[in-house]
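Entry for VIB complex. Fields follow.
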Amino acid sequence: MSEQIFLIDNEFFNKGEKDENTLYITLMLNRPQQIGLFEKIITFTDFLVCADGGANRLYDLESIKDQYLPRAIVGDLDSIKPHVKKYYEEKGVEISQNNSLDDTDLEKSINFLFAKKFFNELLQKSNLRLLIIGAFGGRLDQTISNLSNLVKINKLFKEKNPFSQSIIQMMDQYSLATCLLPGEYYYKRALKLEQTKGLGVLPLGNFNKGKIESKGLRWNLDGLEFEFGSFISTSNEFDESYEGIPYFKTDSTIFIMTCINENV
Ligand SMILES: Nc1ncnc2c1ncn2[C@@H]1O[C@H](COP(=O)(O)OP(=O)(O)OP(=O)(O)O)[C@@H](O)[C@H]1O
Ligand SMILES: Cc1ncc(C[n+]2csc(CCO)c2C)c(N)n1
């Protein structure tokens, strides 16, 4: 029996048309934010959370900081600047402090969401789109930890609701990362947002050997054996002449990384 093919549809980024059965959550991390991209993202965000110093990045978007308040700021609060904390406190933003030395502020933010009744209920009955912004660059241990969390969150979502159509992605101003757990996927990119070139299909999900099949790429992967440290696909491209929706079939956990257009 063939498995269901999961659709990752990014077109709403451009169209600004939200799916009415989906809740859009944005989690801002402590990395530079590009204002134009943020303004696009915030138009479809229902629930914005900042992980600790992520609140400084929101506050620093000077011209629009009054317009978008986060629903919560979560973390050990060692990075949020005192005047930023005061500013959001005075506006009534929920500030959730968690001083555990075993979890990063990103993990604490995810735990915060999972502790909310509405979130668990939504996870059961509708779809969530969780976009984690400011996830790359800077410290490499933090970036790799973020990617590891992308896999962890995907597994957690699937555990809670195996039939969920929820999509969790990470991005910064240069890249968009989507984690594919073993299975079959269509990947409908956002044409204006995601470039044709500079596509990575990367076996970084569990670092095991795996087989990948793809359609719609310039260099398709025809059941080739993939392994970090051996064979990966970088600087690949979407094939513009392909008439279908790009397709991936993988038996191990991988990442699709696309490039963001500079002028979004
Ligand atoms: N240099 C970086 N590169 C990539 N991601 C980062 C970087 N710095 C912070 N982050 C992300 O932003 C989140 C919030 O960052 P913040 O600076 O508030 O935390 P931190 O105290 O540096 O790290 P931790 O989460 O370990 O407490 C981090 O949990 C991490 O996911
Ligand atoms: C195996 C292991 N490695 C590192 C840490 C340290 N650590 C991980 S997340 C975190 C919080 C940072 O704000 C800290 C200190 C740990 N606890 N366990």
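NOTE: The pocket of VIB (ligand 2) is lined by residues 76, 101-104 (CB under 6 Å).
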